[in-house]
Amino acid sequence: MKAEIPEIVSPPLVSPSVRDRGMNGLARLFFAFRRSSKALRLFLAIAGPGIIVMVADNDAGGITTYTVTGAQYGMHLLWFLIVLGPVAYFVQEMTVRLGAVTKRGHAEAIFASFGRFWGWFSLLDLVLTDWLTMITEFIGMTAALSIFHVPPVLTVMICWLIMGSMIMTGQYWTWEKITLGFVVLNLIYIPAAFLVHPSVSDVLHNSFIPHFPPGGFTNTLFFLLMANIGTTIAPWMLFFQQSSVVDKGLKEKDINYGKLDTLIGAFLTVVVAVVLIIVAGQLLQGTNVDDAAKAAALLIPQNRFIGTVMAIGLFDAGLLGAVCISLASSWAFGEVFGWAHSLNRKVREAPWFYAYYFFDLLLAGTVVLIPKAPLVLITLFVQVIATTLLPAALVFLILLLNDKKTMGKYTNTRWQNVANITIVVAVIVTSTLYGISAVFPDLFH
Amino acid sequence: MGRILESLRAQVREVNRRYATPEIAMTPFVKFCLVGLRVYLLMLVTMMVVKFILVARQAL
Fold it and tell me: Does the beta-carbon distance from A336 to B47 stay under 8 Å?
């Protein structure tokens, strides 16, 4: 008879319950890491439209406004720029939801929902506003490079080359990654803020304690505040981001990532604005500065690096603005007329889309090169014409986001309506007053 | 050139036909907003026309 070999069971080194908890903890950590890295990769794939539109919002006109704000009032209006960040976010976030749910650009959405009259009004106003704004971007870019003695003709040709080649790839993703590269370049201003050694307590005080600058609430301050509001929310931004969301193919399930993308963009736009105000406030306060190129030229003798950074940043801001603005118009036309209108299509597949883009580019660049062209008048017209489009575009946005039949569960909540309607009313009032002041400056003296 | 213009006119007519009827439900709030917008734009356009006349008078 074979003796049975007793089974020897080694006593566990660790008790089973503790061993299981340890393994579960490690497994939990591992899976949490995998979930996070997957979420991060997904976010990086979806991020783009929000960051691009927000940073492009700091276009040549925006850079000028912030520089003038800093030169006139030092760092006293930092808090106001920080308040404008969430304002821009709340407005732009609505375009993410609208684009992802309806799969339509803003122009098409207006035509479809509100009919021909409002559709044509919005489209034609957008085209005019965008074209005039493009001219101001080219003005900024030529002024920036003229600091380095680059003739305007060469600057315009360089811009045409860069902007033309960016969209010829036939892939939305490629265009987006190239544009994000220019977005990163736009952050070139940030080191300048540290180099001017601002007082940290002053920066914090002026950033978080709302107050009027010395001198109180004057007409000049009022116009500057309105200019800052006007540069933060521009009509083309609504059209651009919504069309970009559609072209990128964002779905409803991507909306939260789209919102995060927009939030990061709003943060970056505020950072650049704050940095510019700090630099101008530290180095140019009290100096009579009315545009960013002059500011850069004044800064170069004081600090070559900072002056150069200002000039390069101004060029980049103009370029980013021009790319986005011209695409906003091209997409709008394509959506309404039913042309192929995607950056994922090659030129021969979407000829009218690209034709309009290049036409816009060439026309705006050519105007800047015309001797004695009324560029100051054009800059003034932009402010006035934008006043006619922005309120309508914002009102349509609110109405569309409250259309339950279209938006379903993504309809505006009560609190979103409170925030957004407050913002829309405030923007309409201030932009109207700004437009009136541009046309009748004596009315406010 | 004539053909291009004719093609464009045809496309505009097609757009007008396609979007003849607004899709949004015309609730009282929507109607109020649209009327308000029309009044607002009329006011702005009037302002610009007045300015244009004033500038033209000064030039003459």
Answer: no
